[in-house]
Design brief:
The complex is a heterotrimer of chains A (630), B (199) and C (144). Chain A is an alpha/beta fold and 630 residues long. In chain A, the strands form ten sheets. In chain A, strands 10-17-11-12-13 form a five-stranded parallel beta sheet. A four-stranded parallel beta sheet of chain A has the order 25-24-26-27, sandwiched between helices. Chain A has a three-stranded antiparallel beta sheet with strand order 1-2-7. Chain B is an alpha+beta fold and 199 residues long. Chain B has two domains: 92 residues, Orthogonal Bundle (Fumarate Reductase Iron-sulfur Protein, Chain B, domain 2), CATH 1.10.1060.10; 89 residues, Alpha-Beta Plaits, CATH 3.30.70.20. The longest helix of chain B is centred in the last third of the chain and has 20 residues. Chain B is globular and about 55 Å long. With 144 residues, chain C is of the alpha/beta class. Chain C has one domain: Rossmann fold, CATH 3.40.50. Helices cover 40% and strands 17% of the residues of chain C. Chain C is built from five helices and four strands. A four-stranded parallel beta sheet of chain C has the order 2-1-3-4, sandwiched between helices. The chains are: A alpha/beta (630), B alpha+beta (199), C alpha/beta (144). Chains B and C meet through helix 10 and helix 11 of B and strand 2, helix 2 and helix 3 of C.
């Protein structure tokens, strides 16, 4: 940290909030709020005289509130930069610190928050994690029993720079404990609180046990665990070492801690799973190895930076395996535990990975993007004609579309990721997506539905999930109806209602609208744009008295090949259950309505050509089939 | 596959209400230590093992195990279970299946003395398990169609609340904590202490 | 002259003491003037038991069961609370003072509570002046 602060090209801004982020990859504009420290950073030399003079003491968060700090403080003695801050909430304005500071004149009570804008090339988010508060688990009695402490409190109690200078004492009577229990998985792997495994606590418990045992070999330590997870290099060996040092490992999750009211000793009630018997063992002190949870302000950070969250509140990466440190927004990267729980080696490697990813942007003058971006036909956009619209801008998950009164909407190319949400939402068909134009999709549909369309199940699949699901169904040899015909678009947001109308107009037996599960969407909120539209379509078709099941919405992930095949087979059954003449009658009945609703699409540029092209293709294919059949 | 699908103990149970999360048990032992039964009553009682037996389709062992019969559905374990398994529902399910298969509860359940019962229905009202019903019964030596309490042995958990309310001492737990014994014991103690004090 | 220790009958629900040390104390190490009557549930305590204890000369009755909502038999303790409270009021009108008949609903995470509880109950009984006898022993012996 000191090295970073001294580096000529690194500018460390502490006590500063990021309030707004505008712009796009390589060209971000970031609004920072430098909070008032009431100390002039360039004058303060970190001598600490102000802190000595300060009469106010408040709990010290850094010491887990086990020790006090002054209202004029640094969080810890190794703070970088070593500049004091005056805690405005605690300060009583006695100005003793001003006198103590003397000739330096570093204290300035008139200082106010400073808001500055900075030009930034790329952003790395490394906001870390928080720890779970075990006082919400009544059976462990944290907060009621003085000798039940958390892992972080233990960390301060056995730290030589901590409030007790490394002397491990019981909070109730300041005596050194002789028997210590460590309870793992407090609040993690617990559906009542946090379902996830917190990743590093097993090793953390073993580390603490080994450390304490080295300091005091007389200390009896028991670790209560459900499973010990030691997956990385050298971890299992460390676990073995802990066992050989005489640390007792008890398999069984304690259900209750009781306290002797006289001695304040604690009794841990648990089943020893191996023996199948209840044990009720006495300890002087219990350490709860609490779960790691997201920071309390993840929602603010994710809305400022436009990053989505995975279930639980961890920031979502672009791809869990192939792009683990990229956020869905180009130029914003995720390092460390804010993306998902990591121990120190993994945090360091993810930090190094983000540094190189971020550096790549800073070193290049040009930035390559996928060519599937959206484009506006300015002559068709009603905004240009002075009308009020802006539907496209609302649909865009990236804020890439700028609308101005009297001007056609314009797409910020570097921000566009090509989900196609705006294209499908535009009521005037004024936007198209390169490589997924209406004409191109239409040509595919017409080719696929050329022959006996009433027998076909027409599937719209999103590139990332349901297309992968269909692929998996194929490679896993899950049987599904051979009448399925599918086309790929980038996101369920691109599945234009016009396409669905057109598919039914062409006489498709059934249409599947499929995409990612909401939390898996690769375009932040693209799936939600698609899902709202699909629900609207579903209602419309109900109103038009279409046989239910002919239009179906399913969210299928790339791992759900079985679900894909099941859905297609169920849809096949729906078609099979409708008598043929009845189905044909229904298709005929709905055709004019569908044609009316899709009419705008036929006006878009290129569609006329696509129709001719697809007809030619159909003829060519049919001719070929006839030839090879003969 | 040896078994026909749906015939495994697990398959029979998972469809019952409350048993949906049956497969989620990872054997942490919280339920066992939360429950007072193993410590106070029966060392062989172990719901964690029963869940494992269900997973391994050990039907006979599950039915003969004491565990499903002793659970009185206080649900202390349910609120503590990290996997949110409704264990008492599972145990009750096993108990029902066992009863259907012809096993009977080893509990010393309540018994009605038909000769003295007046059919007041107090016990029916207080029973926490709805195990008691007042029915028309033909009682030898007393006459036909008398209203008499009847205990459903499958439901009774032997808590004894019924016998504390009974005004005619007609309902009594079999064997354990018999009223007369309790009172006799009390009197003999009082007598010996008084005697000791007088000396 | 040393005062005679008051006789206490402790009705204890078999599940109410979570700690095995407390349970052992109640079973094995009770002082001589205390008699423990083990019941499966506080709901099992028949008012007749209490009446018998009082007639037999007990100076104090303590009922010890589980907290509401924590009853091993769902609602046996609620039933006990209703019935015994009523019975206690009834005894009071008959001249057996309320403070000689106490309830204690044990919480599951309490440990080492029963010992001081009994001690303080005994202390209070010693200090109280009236030593009522609801009935004489002759009467009971007539009843058999």
């Amino acid at each position: 940290m000191v090295d970073a602060a001294r580096h000529p090209k690194i500018d460390v801004r502490t006590y500063t909030n990021v309030e707004r982020v505008e712009g796009y990859v390589g060209n971000f504009k970031v609004q920072l709020r430098e909070k008032a420290r009431h100390v002039l950073a360039d004058r303060c030399n970190g001598c600490g005289e102000c802190s000595k003079a300060c009469p106010i003491e408040v709990p010290n968060y850094f010491e887990m509130n086990l020790a006090p700090r002054k209202a004029a403080y640094v969080p810890m003695s190794q703070s970088v930069p070593l500049r004091y801050t005056i805690d405005e909430e605690a300060c009583i304005h006695c100005y003793k610190c001003v006198d103590a500071c003397g000739a330096l004149e570093a204290i300035d009570f008139s200082q106010e928050d400073k808001v500055v804008w900075e030009d930034i090339g790329s952003i790395v988010v490394a906001t870390g994690f928080n720890h779970f508060d075990p006082s919400v688990i009544p059976e462990y009695g944290y907060g009621r029993y003085p000798n039940v402490i958390t892992a972080m409190e233990m960390e301060r109690l056995n730290n030589s720079a901590g409030p007790t200078t490394g002397n491990l004492i019981r909070p109730s009577d300041q005596k050194n404990p002789q028997r210590l229990a460590i309870i793992n998985c407090v609040g993690s792997r617990d559906k009542r609180f946090n379902p996830w495994c917190s990743n590093f606590c097993c090793m953390y418990a073993i580390k603490n046990a080994v450390l304490l045992k080295q300091m005091n070999p007389e200390l009896e330590i028991s670790i209560y665990y459900m499973d010990i997870r030691t997956p990385s290099k050298g971890y299992e060996e460390f676990y073995d070492r802990a066992r050989s040092m005489g640390i007792r490992f008890i398999q069984g999750r304690p259900s209750l801690i009781t306290e002797d009211p006289q001695t304040k000793n604690l009794f841990v009630h648990s089943e020893d799973v191996v023996l199948g018997k209840i044990s009720e063992l006495e300890y002087d002190m219990v350490m709860l190895n609490q779960a790691a949870v997201p920071q309390p302000d993840v929602d603010t950070v994710s809305s400022v930076l436009n990053i989505t969250q995975s279930p639980g509140g961890w920031f979502m990466e672009y791809h869990p395996k192939l792009r683990p440190v990229d956020s869905p927004t180009d130029g914003i990267f995720l390092a460390g535990a804010c993306q998902g729980l990591k121990d120190i080696p993994s945090s360091v490697s993810s930090g190094l990975a983000t540094a190189s990813r971020a550096g790549r942007i800073l070193h290049s003058d040009e930035w390559e993007i996928e060519p599937i971006i959206a484009q506006v036909w300015e002559d068709r956009c009603v905004m240009a004609q002075g009308k009020v619209c802006g539907v496209c801008s609302r649909a865009c998950p990236y804020g890439a579309i700028v609308i101005e009164e009297g001007k056609a909407a314009s797409v910020t190319v570097a921000k566009c990721h090509g989900c196609g949400g705006c294209v499908a939402e535009c009521p005037h068909n004024a936007i198209t997506q390169m490589h997924f134009t209406d004409a191109q999709v239409l040509a595919q549909m017409r080719a696929l539905l050329a022959d006996r369309p009433e027998e076909k199940i027409f599937a719209f699949r999103c590139h990332w999930c349901s297309y992968g699901g269909a692929d998996l169904a194929g490679t896993s040899h899950f049987d599904y109806s051979a009448n399925e015909r599918g086309i790929r678009v980038m996101c369920s947001a691109r599945m234009d209602p016009d396409f669905i109308y057109e598919a039914f107009r062409l006489g498709a037996g059934a249409v599947l609208y499929s995409g990612c599960h909401p939390q898996d969407c690769h375009y932040i909120t693209g799936q939600r744009v698609g899902a709202t539209r699909a629900d609207r379509l579903q209602k419309l078709f109900e109103k038009l008295e279409m046989t239910s099941g002919r239009f179906r919405i399913e969210w299928i992930s790339a791992a759900e090949g079985d679900k894909y095949s099941r859905v297609i087979n169920e849809m096949q059954k729906v078609i099979d259950n409708i008598p043929h003449d009845q189905l044909m009658a229904e298709i005929e009945r709905l055709r004019p309505e569908m044609e009316k609703r899709a009419r705008r699409m036929y006006e878009t540029p290129g569609v006329d050509k696509a129709l001719v092209y697809s007809d030619e293709m159909v003829q060519a294919i049919t001719a070929k089939e006839v030839k090879s059949g003969a | 596959m040896e078994h026909e699908k749906g015939s495994d103990l697990r398959d029979l149970l998972i469809v019952l209400p409350g048993c949906e999360k049956l497969d989620m048990c990872f054997s942490c032992g919280t339920c066992v230590s939360r429950c007072p039964i193993q410590q106070k009553i029966e060392p062989a009682y172990n719901p964690r093992r029963l869940l494992k037996m269900i997973a391994l389709n050990m039907q006979q062992e599950s039915f003969t195990s004491i565990t499903p019969y002793l659970c009185s559905a206080c649900d202390l374990c349910y609120s503590a279970c990290p996997q949110e398994i409704h264990i008492s529902a599972v145990l009750n399910g096993v108990k029902k299946l066992a009863m259907q298969a012809g096993f009977s509860t080893p509990l010393k359940t309540a018994r009605v003395d038909a000769l003295t019962c007046v059919g007041c229905g107090f016990c029916e009202k207080v029973c926490p398990y709805q195990a008691i019903t007042v029915k028309e019964t033909n009682v030898p030596l007393r006459g036909k169609n008398l209203l008499i309490a009847e205990v459903d042995g499958a439901k009774c958990m032997a808590c004894g609340t019924c016998s504390s309310i009974c005004r005619s001492n007609s309902i009594e737990l079999q064997d354990r904590e018999n009223s007369e014994e309790v009172v006799q014991d009390l009197w003999s103690w009082l007598e010996t202490v008084e005697m000791g004090a007088e000396k | 002259m040393t005062q005679k220790k008051p006789l206490i009958v402790l009705f204890q629900c078999q599940y109410c003491l979570a700690s095995s040390l407390d349970q052992y104390w109640v079973e094995q190490e009770l002082p001589e003037n205390v008699k423990r009557v083990k019941v499966p549930c506080s709901g099992r305590i028949d008012p007749l038991y209490i009446l018998n204890a009082i007639q037999g000369g007990a100076d104090g009755i303590m009922v010890c069961g589980c907290m509401p909502e924590k009853c091993h038999y769902k609602e046996g303790n609620l039933h006990a609370r209703r019935t015994l409270n009523e019975f206690r009021n009834f005894l009071n009108t008959l001249g057996y003072p309320q403070e000689r008949f106490v309830f204690h609903w044990m919480n599951i995470d309490e440990r080492g509570v029963i010992q001081p509880l009994l001690a303080s109950f005994e202390e209070r009984l010693k200090r109280s002046k009236d030593r009522p006898r609801l009935a004489n022993r002759m009467l009971n012996q007539e009843n058999g």
